[in-house]
Amino acid sequence: MNAHPAATWASHSVLLCSDIHLSDANPALTEAFCAWIEQSSQRISPESILVLGDLFDAWVGDDVLTAHQSLCAQTIANLFELQALKGIRIGLMHGNRDFLIGEQFAKQCNAQLLADPCVLTMSSGATIALTHGDQLCTQDSDYQGFRQQVRAPSWQHDFLAKPLNERLEVAHHLRAQSELEKKTKSMEIMDISPQEAETLAEQLAVDVLLHGHTHRPGVSPMSNGRKRWVLPDWEINASGALHRGGGLLINQNGIEVISAARV
Ligand code: LP5
Ligand code: MN
């Protein structure tokens, strides 16, 4: 297992998803996600499955699996390990909720961590920049300040040294604070900066930029014939049925929406 996050990925068929926001508080969502991965991987047989961040609602350290006995984290580790045993390559990118996922959890999933951004090269020659997307929300200066602080290795080292209960409490507090602050921010501020997206696609010389985070799925044109694809988030409704979810398949035929309701 390579200990460095992969900055490039080559494949001929990739199933992508992000922003599932799994937690022990929402077992129906874990069940729906597992069903989607199992059924679509059986139907499509992708060579790779890539999760572009926010697989979990909040991740406070890889020891949740042992010390906290998180059924959700264990179920997901088993799910990916099983897919990997079938020969599917699994890649996990950090999101703004689960940037503390480490090598230990990746190993338990039989997955490789992905750098953000990561350039996906298809057998057809098509190139796709993959990113969670939060880095491109440059108008959200409060968030970017917060991000800079919590992504610093020394800050993470100190945070991970705290007792697990304390870390869970901080995460809980931060989630509440974030929800409060989001009410005061405009949709435009919380979206990707089109200029940043253009610059990244240009720098990486890709045909497509693909991200999650904004929960605004779809495809839109960029300059020079490039396209920007956005992954959907996942949500369970009050009766426990899947309300939103799914992902994208990229293969020799291009990019296709794989809805979670269809499988
Ligand atoms: O994810 P989403 O869409 O709800 O909101 C994001 C931004 N919010 C966040 C915060 C996360 O939700 C918090 C959960 C983190 C779990 C990990 C826990 C482990 C690490 C603990 C770190 C201390 O990412 C939101 C954006 C929005 O996307 C759209 O892009 O706007 O940004 C915010 O709301 C952040 C605020 O603007 C700034 C928060 C300042 C908090 C300062 C307290 C710092 C104290 C440090 C504690 C030790
Ligand atoms: Mn996010």
Distance between the termini: 32 Å
Q: Which molecules other than protein and nucleic acid are bound?
A: ligand LP5, manganese (II) ion
Total count of domains: 1
Helix-residue proportion: 25-40%
The CATH superfamily is: Metallo-dependent phosphatases
Beta content comes to 15-25%
Short description:
The chain has seven helices and 13 strands.
List keywords for this structure.
binds manganese (II) ion, 34% helix, alpha/beta, 13 strands, Purple Acid Phosphatase, chain A, domain 2, eleven-stranded mixed beta sheet, two-stranded antiparallel sheet, 263 residues, globular, binds ligand LP5
Q: Would you write up a description of this structure?
A:
- The chain is an alpha/beta fold.
- It has one domain (6-262): Purple Acid Phosphatase, chain A, domain 2 (4-Layer Sandwich), CATH 3.60.21.
- It contains 7 helices and 13 strands.
- Strands 1, 2, 3, 4, 5, 6, 7, 8, 9, 12 and 13 form an 11-stranded mixed beta sheet that branches. A two-stranded antiparallel ribbon has the order 10-11.
- The mean pLDDT is 96.
- The site of ligand LP5 has 22 residues, from helix 4 and helix 6.
